[in-house]
Amino acid sequence: MNHIVVQACTSCGAPRHAHRVCMSCGKYGDEQIIVKEAAAE
Question: In this structure, which of 3, 36, 39, 40 has its CB flanked by the most CB atoms within 10 Å?
């Protein structure tokens, strides 16, 4: 039986899949994996 576990990100609180990088803030644990760029004005 396979099911998806959704947890709150420990950095930003957004919902994310367990054991995956948070797509909201780009962190996995305490490590910044994806650097988000600020929106250009």
Answer: 36
Kindly tell me if the per-residue pLDDT of 18 is higher than 90: yes
The span from the CA of 41 to the CA of 34, in Å, is 21
Chain-centroid distance, C-alpha 16: 6
Prediction pTM value? 0.72
Domain that holds residue 32: 1-41
For residue 37, the model assigns a pLDDT of: 79
Compute the CA torsion angle 8, 11, 13, 18 (nearest 10 deg).
Answer: -20
